[in-house]
Amino acid sequence: MSLDLFRPAAASRPPRRSRYLMMPLSVITHLAILGALVVIPLTAADTLPSPREMLIVMQAATPAPPPPPPLPQATRAAARVAVTPSVPVEAPEEIGEERGLQPPPDLQPLDLVSYAGTVPGTVDSSLARIMDRPPDPPRPPATPLPIGGKITAPRKLVEARPVYPPLALQAHVEGIVFIRAIIGPTGMVENAEVLRGVPLLNEAALDAVRQWRYTPTQLDGVPISVIMTVTVTFTLK
């Protein structure tokens, strides 16, 4: 067989390089045509189509329980209050004078508590006696208090002169003796001790201070004991 029959077909084929270039061009052309088919209808309409509304109805799996039945009305018998038979339920037609224990006509208001203690069913008699008893007077403090504030210094009523010791006279000794004295509620010196002094003059100063008398010192109307410092001066004039 002669080869001339195949020459025209071989000559009509495009070169291999041209075939590679036509493939992408064909793909781009098809994509452009498809895009035009989608975009042109959208741009031609005035408004975009709105999506359809979907209504979803959900049905409960179990039905709601029925409401509870109404409570029965309370009967009059259940609403009644138990009443003691001895207490009258109905009001009397007329009110008469009360008959019972009456206080004496000369009873004073202060004696009312004492009288109530004798009436059965009222204040106990022991409680009445406690309430009728006057309050206890305030007690003085257990320890002596120093002078100051509400506590003022007592005023001296009796002052005994100290006796100059003969030995101190012969030695020509002079000086001042400081004594811490406790004045009792009656104003008498209950205790005295030397704080600072002269050995030859201390005992004579203590003997003189123990004989002094003062006005009683009071705190809120109650006599109390106070502590104060007194001085005794010895001179040879």
Describe the structure.
With 237 residues, the protein is α+β, with helices and mostly antiparallel strands. It has a domain at 145-234: TolA/TonB C-terminal domain, CATH 3.30.2420. It is built from seven helices and eight strands. The strands form three sheets. Strands 1-8-3-4 form a four-stranded mixed beta sheet. It has a two-stranded antiparallel sheet with strand order 2-5. β6 (217-219) and β7 form a beta hairpin. The radius of gyration is 63 Å and the shape is elongated. The protein starts with 6 loop residues before the first helix and ends with a strand.
Compact description:
With 237 residues, the protein is of the alpha+beta class. The protein is built from 7 helices and 8 strands; from the N terminus they run H-H-H-H-H-E-E-H-E-E-H-E-E-E-E.
Break the fold down into its secondary structure elements and pairings.
Blueprint: H1 7-12, H2 16-44, H3 76-79, H4 112-116, H5 125-132, E1 145-146, E2 156-158, H6 166-170, E3 175-183, E4 189-196, H7 202-209, E5 213-214, E6 217-219, E7 222-224, E8 226-234
Parallel strand pairs: 1-8
Antiparallel strand pairs: 2-5, 3-4, 3-8, 6-7
